[in-house]
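Structural prep section.
Before we set up the soaks we want a predicted structure of the protein with 2-deoxy-2-amino glucitol-6-phosphate in place, mainly to decide which crystallisation condition to try first. Input record follows.
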Amino acid sequence: MCGIVGYTGPRPVLPLLIGGLRKLEYRGYDSAGVALQTGVELVVAKAVGRLSCLEERVAGIPGDGFLAGMGHTRWATHGRPSDINAHPHGDCRGRFAVAHNGIIENYRSLRERLRGSGHHFSSETDTEVIPHLIEEAYRGDLASAVRSVAGLLRGSFALVAMAASEPGLLVAVRKDSPLIVGLGDGENFLASDIPAILEYTKSCYILDDGELVVADQRCVEVQDLTGRVRHKPVFQVPWDVAVAERGGYPHFMLKEIHEQPQAVRETLRDRIKEGELALDEFGLDGDAARALRRLHLVGCGTAYHACLVGKYLIEKLARLAVEVDLASEFRYRDPMVETGSLLVAVSQSGETADTLAALREGKRQGARTVAISNVMGSSITREAGSVFYTRAGLEQAVASTKAYVTQLVALMLLAVDLGAKRGTVPEAERAELIEAIQKLPELAEEVLKLAPAIDNLARQVAQWEDAFFIGRGLDYAVALEGQLKLKEISYIHAEAYAAGELKHGTLALIVERIPVIALATQPPVLDKMISNITEVRARGGRIIAVCSNEEELAPYADDLILLPACHPLLMPVLAVMPLQLLAYYAAVHLGCDVDKPRNLAKSVTVE
Ligand code: AGP
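Run finished without errors. Recording the tokens verbatim:
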């Protein structure tokens, strides 16, 4: 959500900034802009729309001849997407430029006060107060001005500032919104995320909240907000540019769907050794696992759907009460978190503002906390008591796929481990589950061979206006994820229901040819599921069944997606893949922008 790139050094600044912004496109945006420093003045260009619109706008500006610059992709929060509202923003006389990610919650009162003292605003954004505040505070030293302005701001921010009168200098500060510093030789970088700078350096500082950076081409200094220097460890990025590229696939989403077997394999590596689980990362020894009376799972969107699977597995295998919350609701419902309970925050990016806030609420109420995250050094991983890293690799498509299946694997491992430690899973069942988990990568490869058949089916799906997904138990949790995938990238209206709920209201919508995707992978409720499918068929609904039992389901389905046999508790990992492919191909057939769906951002760093 919003992207920042900053550069100081000898390279042609403009193409470097645009290239960096392109690498951050996956975060989601609706307008973009750059500010360039000549050594005497600041040149600013902005355009609503895709980066190509900004490129057209800057066509007349030479690429080089600038000492430093910043670029920004904006995802609108305050003020509609427009040229004026795009960042960077300036002060009254164009002496300062600021690009900002996050939300300034007290911008109204700040703007009123600034207006009262004669400042003129040109945009509707919260951000614009920042350059005006800098203008007021500036006494010839940008770092001091930004430091004092940071103290006035409430909310979340990662911001970069430049002054026309301080050639080659970038000053940045972070609170609750990610920002990294790329360390080069005779050049330095700032960015919201690693892909933007990976072409130039793998060494970086990951800034913490309340840290301010002063960077020119020769040196980078990290300070706290009192101006004291902080010595930070250099983080070496463990992957390279090739990983961040599409590798021959037309979209990141398709690449990431096909990377799932490997992502699962990586997530399991070293965590099962000679048939035994080695899960120290959860920070739960036998005594701690036995002492637990309640577990909370929190996440948003797809991560929340993973939590629903986690609840089912943990309650079943570990006989431990699990509460699942949408992280955006958690802290506002006055939750009861017993001291000593465990709160697990699930977040691919580790930067989701709501999930971070839920984690903090759990900590405040005395819970032990664990993060399940895919991004090393992200905010949630730094604040949680322990961290289990999924190893899905960089996920760039806005629609989460490989991160989701690795979250499922993490929660499956946690459930089996808790069950073993609490003595609720008999030894033989534990061994059977561990063996079955290890087979998941191969089975996932088999499922992905269905891609061409699903592409065919997706041609019909692309004609639909509505779709329903139904399932029971674990299948219901997967149905929720399937409907989210379909609507977020193809914009087809989709809803998921627990199959038994249909007759309590939604069956009224089932008429001739209404498509219903029925997940039927759970033997204990298969008969019940078949009854629900027949209820749909009796009203003329059209059934696409996802199952591993052809004989039982074929008589009731218009189309069948057949999964390989697998332990029923692990089925969500396999069952979701055809749904991801169905959504992907339907979106492609509809000509949608698959990797960057409208209005959505990859990493949702505002509430
Ligand atoms: C799913 O495809 C979405 N991109 C979205 O629901 C996502 O899972 C959610 O925003 C949570 O993100 P996180 O895992 O990075 O916290």
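Observations: The chain has three domains: 3-243, 246-438, 447-595.
Flagged for discussion at group meeting.
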